[in-house]
Amino acid sequence: MVKVLKPGIYSSVQDLGRFGYQEFGVPYSGVMDNYAAKMVNLLLGNHENAAVIEMTMMGPTLEFKSDTLICISGAEMSPKLNKKAVSKNEVMEVYKGDVLSFGKLKLGFRSYLGVSGGFKTEAIMQSRSMYEGITSVSRLQKGEELPVEHKTISNLNKYAHLKVNQDYLKTDTVEVFKGPEFGMLSKKQQNLLMKTGFSISKENNRMAYQLVEPLENDLKPIITSAVMPGSVQLTPSGKLIVLMRDCQTTGGYPRVLQLTENAINVLSQKFTGQNIKFKIIE
């Protein structure tokens, strides 16, 4: 078990998401940054879909009730084990009674904690991803105990070194495909969309990121259609909304762009006031 001493600002258990239920209006959910989440599972020898803890801006404080192996990746949140600084992207031994905490956010916005075998919290519709209305809780609760496998730790032999690419935490370029309604924009609107720098508004969360700078919009509404994480919608007021992992499954705003999977990872590590620019992948 892992006991939650402090839950942090917004920490939740996530895997790669809930697939096959979108016709019933069930969001995909899942980790916002699947590169970092897959990395911790890869380093631990887990299946890539093993459940991890996603930490946003400020991490939790956790007490381990059994021995296991852990790994941290994603944003730099100054992790400490028993008050001693530890590194990201390395497998670490932890023992019963050890306490893991996080400090100042230095780079990125979301960090990921994996354990050997993954967190064994409730699975609903073949996923452990927390989402309000689907799972019993939508984020970690103080005092909650998260089931994990006990790991008998022998010498942690390392025979290889894996270089983890962290450049995506620093870039402001978000790669996109043209969306289904991109062609409805005028050439002037298309050029503005691709040449304008946009900033992240305070309305950003696991459901969507809204951008501050408007884009003049004279498009006619579309028939409600399917949307997915990474869809960029243009509202009648000219606001651009980038849908993220907890987004709805349909929408009526024109879908002018579609983020690549890597671009969703990039954007999920941004927060209010930071800037991005779109780059079309032909």
Written account of the structure:
The protein is mostly beta strands. 10% of the residues lie in helices and 32% in strands. It is built from 3 helices and 20 strands. Strands 12-19-16-17-14-13-20 form a 7-stranded mixed beta barrel. It has a 6-stranded antiparallel sheet with strand order 7-6-9-4-1-11, with no helix packed on it. A 5-stranded antiparallel sheet has the order 2-3-10-5-8. Strand 13 (198-204) and strand 14 (208-211) form a beta hairpin. The longest helix is centred in the first third of the chain and has 11 residues, at 34-44.
What is the strand and helix layout of this fold?
Elements: E1 2-6, E2 10-14, H1 34-44, E3 52-56, E4 61-64, E5 68-76, E6 79-81, E7 84-85, E8 92-94, E9 99-102, E10 107-115, E11 145-146, E12 173-178, H2 187-195, E13 198-204, E14 208-211, E15 225-226, E16 231-234, E17 240-243, E18 250-251, E19 255-259, H3 261-268, E20 275-280
**How many E strands?**
20
The major β-sheet equals: 7 strands, mixed, barrel
Pick out the low-confidence regions: none
Radius of gyration: 20 Å
Number of helices: 3
Secondary structure class reads mainly beta
- Strand and helix order: EEHEEEEEEEEEEHEEEEEEEHE
- What is the straight-line distance between the termini? 48 Å
Beta content comes to 25-35%
**3D shape:** elongated
